[in-house]
Amino acid sequence: MLKHWVVIYISIALIGGLLLLGFSIWEAFLPVILVKLGLDAWGAASVSSKYYINVLCKAPGTEKAVALSFDDGPVENYTPQILDILKAHQVPAAFFCIGRRVQELPGLVKRAQEEGHLIGNHSYSHHALFDLYPTGKMKKELRMANEAIEAATGLRPALFRPPYGVTNPMLARAIRHGGFTPVGWSIRSLDTVIKEEDKLFGRVTRKISPGDIFLFHDTCAATVKILPALIKQLKREGFAIKRIDELLNIPAYA
Question: Is the pLDDT confidence value at 190 over 90?
Answer without folding.
Answer: yes
